Amino acid sequence: MKKKRLILLSAMLAVCTSCSQLPGSSSSSAEISKSSTSAAGINWLQPNQMRPAMLHMKDMTTTKEVKRGAALTVPFLYQPLSLQRLPVQDEQGNTVPLEELLRSADTDGFLVLHEGKIVYETYFHDMKSSDLHGMASVSKVFTGLLVSLLTGEKKLSLSASAAEYVPELRGTPFGKATLQQLLDMQVSAMYPTHGFQQEGLANQDAQLYLASHQLPRPFGYEGPDSILGMLREARETDSPGAAFAYNNGSTETLAAVLRRVTGRSLSDLVSTRIWRKLGAEQDAMYVTDPTGAEQASAGFNATLRDMGRFGQMMLRNGSYHSKRVIPAAVVQEIRQHGDQEIFSRSTAAAKRPDYSYHNQWWLTNNEHGAFEVMGSYGQRLYIDPAAEMVIVQFSSRAIERAETDAAMVEAYRQITGALLKS
């Protein structure tokens, strides 16, 4: 019996050889490294690890750069307003200054543009303006825009199935779906758990992170070793087009189509078709799986200001500083369409009753025609055309709270009102 215990202990220690710490010990952001946070290391989704990971993703997993190129960066003009003191309501309904709400919401960076100028920019928790930050599902819009661009160039057909471009997906729910159904999140699918479950973490997110080697794998893990492998084992729960079903797999499938049709990486496509044309300040980057495929649905990292530039370009119907980045028709298509009826029948409608979803964007359908994209852990890009306002929020909110999300939505309305009065 003693010998068996020694063998078991040796095996446990072998599993932990690439860990920087034993379970239960703590780690500061300065100790984060690729070896200590790899698939054999710590779970970065824990509250004490979320912020170091969101700000140092390059040190914890494999990535690909999205090059900014040699384009001239046009600095923002500043017209500061004292929005940090703007009265807003916190999660309990108490009136507090905006800055206090942002801090309690685990915000890392917050940017407000009005008429193209920075009116408010603030950082918390030692984040700097030059730091890249993980953006979770905000990442999805870049893949959506690229699909729209290639469709306009007649290189893709939105009525074609994904399997026509990626035959390996034939017979899967994502392969059966048309590109338009994938863009509009109308593919219902689920994935095996492979023995991994974590409270508060959706299984589709868990499987994406596991396939990308972004989470510690459970002992005996026999799941996919790539994002494409994850897509191939998905199981259909409803026919494509029958329901709104927000799923990372739809975006990952579109990214696979883009790579196959162009023969180029997603990083290269975003760089040449969008990032360089914006005159971004910094290179961006994608998290990748072991095959080098980018995590299209959740792996984009960029600076706060560069995402402000991107949002301003979308606000201006595809132009930035009089330079055409994407066709105006691409932005107009996003803003003018969206199936509210199919969305109203989804579980997502409970939190967003007036919304719809189109081409990887959430449409508020409010009186200002605002549209946005949101990501887990408190990421958001919000664009209000009527108010000529763009808001970018980066956060490290390991524990999602409905009250916090509701308070932030209301705060955005308060900011809009303040800008319209200024």
TrEMBL record:
Pfam families: Beta-lactamase
Residue intervals of the Beta-lactamase-related domain: 110-400
Keyword list, A-Z: Signal
Signal peptide: 1-20
InterPro entries for the chain: Beta-lactam-related, Beta-lactam/transpept-like, Diverse_Enzym_Activities
Name listed for the protein in its UniProt record: Beta-lactamase family protein
Record organism: Ectobacillus ponti
